[in-house]
Design a protein that fits this description.
With 307 residues, the chain is of the alpha+beta class. The protein has helices at 5-11, 16-23, 27-35, 42-52, 56-60, 101-115, 160-167, 169-174, 181-203, 222-234, 270-288, 296-303; strands at residues 82-90, 93-100, 124-128, 132-136, 143-148, 205-210, 215-219, 244-248, 255-259, 263-269. It has two domains: 5-63, 434 Repressor (Amino-terminal Domain); 75-269, no CATH class. The protein is globular.
């Protein structure tokens, strides 16, 4: 199977020997990968994606199927060329998000839609490069500044494969031989810098930031992910007064309802969220087999609980 590895290598100014040394393999092996004579192992594909700062799909020159996407050994989140920073100012201060070029346009279009209509009720939503699905409450936003990285350095962010690896970092560090050295090294460095709680906050949570700057964080599981997805699909994440969102608590027999009227921003761990939604979509698909289309919404409701 032909790949784009050679094109990526040339673009990055590396020889086959330099790339082979970096990967701990031989020039001959790299040459066979480039010509498609040998299939590239999953471990090396993730290493190459890190080295070339691209997605595995770009390396392979094709789009992955959405089927069983949650089981993919590669990151689900994909980003375009980094642009710069979206700096959002609230009453309590500012939050900065690293964004790519398409996200820059998406944010601009959504705010223009608000300015042009008094009927616009939805929150602003976008993917940030630092593994966040972000929802902004327009009523709480004082201003938004979007500028390129040649004006100001972007907030720190990692390759999507790093966020996937961090989500599994305990297994990766225990089974280092099953992962490439580049991936293991970066995961170790980040895990040591953030600590276990910091890694969990980065890859496994939903965070609600109130208008006064206080925040509430909870684990991102299937139930919470399904509520977020329903809000996105059905437009239920509106700005109407007293709109409540249910989150999980540490006590399994309890729950908490958050009044979104008082929430300024919601941050969701992106890679975990996308994988959970892909898994839920598969469950809905399997449950729908043998049912007519009229009953599909009922199946979806049973599997993906509403508030």
């Amino acid at each position: 199977m032909q790949t784009n590895i050679k094109a990526m290598r040339v673009r990055n100014g590396k020889t086959q020997k330099e790339l082979a040394d970096r990967l701990g393999t031989t020039e001959q092996t790299v040459a066979r990968w480039e010509t498609g004579r040998t299939q590239v192992p999953v471990i090396q594909l993730r290493e190459l994606a890190l080295i070339f700062s691209c997605s595995v799909d770009e390396l392979l020159g094709k789009q992955r199927s959405n089927k069983r996407l949650h089981k993919s050994p590669f990151a689900v989140a994909k980003h375009e060329c980094p642009f710069g920073t979206a700096s959002v100012t609230f009453g309590f201060g500012s939050l900065d998000y690293p964004i790519d070029f398409p996200t820059r346009e998406l944010i601009h279009q959504q705010f223009c839609a608000i300015a042009g209509s008094d009927q616009y009720k939805n929150w602003i939503e976008f993917y940030a490069l630092n593994n966040k699905l972000v929802f902004l409450n327009p009523a709480a936003v004082r201003s938004v500044d979007i500028f390129s990285d040649d004006v100001q350095s972007m907030p720190e962010f990692q390759h999507p494969e790093i966020y996937l690896a961090l989500d599994e970092h305990i297994n990766i560090l225990q089974e280092e031989q099953e992962n490439g050295p580049e991936l293991v090294k970066r995961v170790e460095e980040i895990a040591q810098a953030l600590g276990e709680d910091g890694v969990i906050d980065l890859v496994d949570t939903i965070k609600m930031v109130y208008a006064d700057g206080n925040s509430k964080t909870c684990s991102l599981n299937e139930d919470v992910a399904s509520r977020i997805e329903l809000f996105q699909v059905e437009g239920r994440l509106g700005t109407a007064k007293d709109n409540f969102f249910e989150i999980e608590t540490e006590c399994q027999s309890a729950f908490e309802l958050i009044n979104l009227t008082h929430v300024a921003v919601i941050e969701v761990a992106l890679e975990r969220y996308l994988r959970l939604i892909a898994e839920l979509a598969e469950e809905v698909k399997h449950a729908a087999i043998g049912h007519d289309s009229a009953s599909l919404s009922n199946i979806r409701t049973e599997i993906m609980p509403r508030l």
